[in-house]
């Protein structure tokens, strides 16, 4: 039995961790959002920005957990790279999230004009569930954790007394 298997991860799970990239994560994360009844986001909305931060915190927790379990670096680095690509720029904008979401155009997202702030998810819950069931368990767990963090942060932010009416409709 390999040392990774002794740490609670199978060879298949390690292979799945090694194959995570920005595109695969974003697609599975969007499927998780659709599963959570989120059908669009507004990347420049302050509530959404806080929710993006919550996603990064969830990814960072998973990276830390994998590191603490002393998994090989080649199983941890792909997820760390995804998180780093999604981190905010020096201006505080989340261009990485926006670009990753727009890269799914014609599959899992719709944004007919890049000047529109809405990015819609024209995917049914059935399609989202089907996609999620087709990916490796560890990738699904990571995406669903990130979707849960985003959803919880968004709901918390929309209940804030400082939220404007337009922001709460995002």
Based on CA atoms alone, the radius of gyration comes out at 16 Å
Question: How many alpha or pi helices?
Answer: 9
Distance between the termini: 49 Å
Helix fraction bin: 55-70%
Q: Which residues form runs of ≥5 with pLDDT under 50?
A: 161-170
Element string (H = helix, E = strand): HHHEHHHEHHH
What percent strand? under 5%
Q: Which overall shape is indicated by the principal axes computed on the Cα atoms?
A: globular
The biggest beta sheet reads:
2 strands, antiparallel
Strand order of the largest sheet: 1-2
Structural classification: mainly alpha
Mean pLDDT comes to 87
Number of beta strands: 2
What structural keywords apply?
mainly alpha; 170 residues; two-stranded antiparallel ribbon; single chain
């Amino acid at each position: 039995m390999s040392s990774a298997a002794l740490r609670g991860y199978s060879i298949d799970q390690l292979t799945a961790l090694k194959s995570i990239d920005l595109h695969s994560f974003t697609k599975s994360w969007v499927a998780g959002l659709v599963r959570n009844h989120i059908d669009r986001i507004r990347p420049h909305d302050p509530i959404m920005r806080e929710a993006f931060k919550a996603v990064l915190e969830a990814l960072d927790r998973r990276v830390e957990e994998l590191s603490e379990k002393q998994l090989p670096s080649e199983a941890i680095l792909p997820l760390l790279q995804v998180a780093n690509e999604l981190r905010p720029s020096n201006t505080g904008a989340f261009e990485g999230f926006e670009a990753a979401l727009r890269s799914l155009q014609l599959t899992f997202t719709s944004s007919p004009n890049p000047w529109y702030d809405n990015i819609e998810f024209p995917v049914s819950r059935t399609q989202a569930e089907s996609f999620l069931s087709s990916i490796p368990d560890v990738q699904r767990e990571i995406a669903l954790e990130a979707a849960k963090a985003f959803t919880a942060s968004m709901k918390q932010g929309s209940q804030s007394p400082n939220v404007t009416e337009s922001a709460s409709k995002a």
